[in-house]
Amino acid sequence: MIRVIIISALWCPSCLIMMDRYDEIKSDYSNFEYINYDFDFDKNKIAEYNPGKILPVLIVKKNDVEILRIIGEKSYKEIKKQIEELINGK
Amino acid sequence: MVSKFIKSIFIGLSVLFTSINPISVKNLDTNIANEVNIYFFHVENCSSCAKIENLLSSIENEYDNVNIIKYMLNDENPENAELLSKIAIAFDEDQVATPFVTLGGKHFVGYNVYVSAQISKYVEKYTNNDFVDVTAKIINNQVINDGDFDFSNDDEFYLPIIGIINIKNTSLILISTILGLVDGFNPCAMWVLIFLITLLLPTKDKKRIWIIGGAFLLTSAIFYFTIMMAWIETISLISAKTIFQIIIGAFAIVAGLYNLYNFLKNLKNKDVGCEVTNENQRMKLMQKIQKLTSQKSLILAVGGVIALAIIVNFIELACSTGLPVLFSQILLINNISGIQAIGYVLIYILFFLIDDLFVFITVITTLKLKGISNKIGKYSSLIGGLIMLLIGILMIFFPNIIMLNF
């Protein structure tokens, strides 16, 4: 069971840029579960993920264990490559 | 530095086109150089006079056709002061001070690198081109015509097709654009507008977005404009301009180094995104924005957004670490005031707001919010730092370059 947690903020231009790329990832891996959190309004819920000081943050969890964290602006290709490596066990 | 670069391009092009441009053709028909008289008024124990005297001696050694005629101003030669006063009136010069130099239809008061470069330039010009020796006419009590004076503008260059280019104006437009852009891409500038539009967007009410977003941007522009014009007007009243210029220069060096330090500190962090800073302050502003966007009355919402823009821009002023101050100082050094200053400040503000305008115009035309990458913002501290450091050094050690006198 793979769960993807996305933490972004309404005021953040980088998050706006990344949303389109995350949408592409979502359609590529529709079998994953996706949860979106807002950095400011979901403070209590995101505390356990320790999101840090750079937004947005994408966290991939497998069986509740974090296996990947992608921080800030990354290209679609880069995100896809990292997920593929995880799936193929490289 | 940029202006110097641009100027060298212009000069290069001018030289390239001299063969087809009759205005800049040198008189090569004759090898006989014109005789050029330089009239030099000086007093004893005057360091600036001594510097001009050294310059004139070296010119006299270099050019066989140049004669230096010296007039010492003292009690023993009252006629020299009388002549100088006649010359000053003829040249419409209020400042009758030494060293005072005339040659052909030009005159120079005082000494600095600019004056020295200009004297050398006009010696060369008059050696090869016809001119009227205005001072000789005054001495010989001849009638002087307006056409006898050399009104050629030292800042203007002729370019084929384009025409006359004023180097000073072009350079200042470039400086306004670059400093405005660097200031505008400051990473802490954009978030309020993004958040404001994010909250307005679900209403899909274009008119409301137009009015509230427009009021925010317009207030930001007016706020910046007022601060910069007030600064220019206040500082222009200060008499100790040189000391003040050194203080501003030192401040620019410190701020430039601070920006570079910030850039280097963040260099090892490969993740570029929105940096979470001042969380409490941001939360308070966000609550204010939420309150005003949920306001049903458009007038109250506009009032709220105007107040918000003022608060945010106050915070942003601290964030831009003094680029507007530096820019205003550059205008002051170049004696730019009044309508001209307004023009340059407006160019600065246009480019300062250009990223916000891009976001705003995209929203009102497509009703979609597009972000601008923070990767640009990351380099604004590097470029801003380097520019501030450079301007600071120039202001203190080479003010002539900031005066755009090359």
What is the strand content of chain A? Answer: 25-35%
Question: Looking at this structure, what is the CATH superfamily of chain A?
Answer: Glutaredoxin
Helices and strands of chain A, in order, run as EHEHEEEH
**CATH architecture term of chain A:** 3-Layer(aba) Sandwich
* Terminal residue distance of chain B: 10 Å
Mean pLDDT of chain A: 92
Look at the structure and give the CATH class of chain A.
Alpha Beta
Quaternary structure of the protein: heterodimer
Strand content of chain B: 5-15%
The domain count of chain B comes to 2
Number of helices of chain A: 3
The largest sheet of chain B has its strands arranged as: 2-1-3-4
In total, the number of domains of chain A comes to 1
Which features characterize this protein?
A: 90 residues, alpha+beta, four-stranded mixed sheet, 31% strand, B: 406 residues, Glutaredoxin, two-stranded antiparallel sheet, 16 helices, disordered N terminus
Structure description:
- The complex is a heterodimer of chains A (90) and B (406).
- Chain A is of the alpha+beta class.
- Chain A has helices at residues 13-28, 43-46, 76-87, and strands at 2-8, 33-38, 54-55, 57-62, 65-71.
- Chain A contains three helices and five strands; from the N terminus they run βαβαβββα.
- Chain A has a four-stranded mixed beta sheet with strand order 2-1-4-5.
- By secondary structure, chain B is of the alpha+beta class.
- Chain B has two domains: 22-159, Glutaredoxin (3-Layer(aba) Sandwich); 169-402, no CATH class.
- Chain B is 63% helix and 8% strand.
- Chain B has 16 helices and seven strands.
- In chain B, helix 8 (206-235) packs across helix 11.
- At the A-B interface, helix 1 and strand 3 of A face helix 7, strand 7 and helix 10 of B.
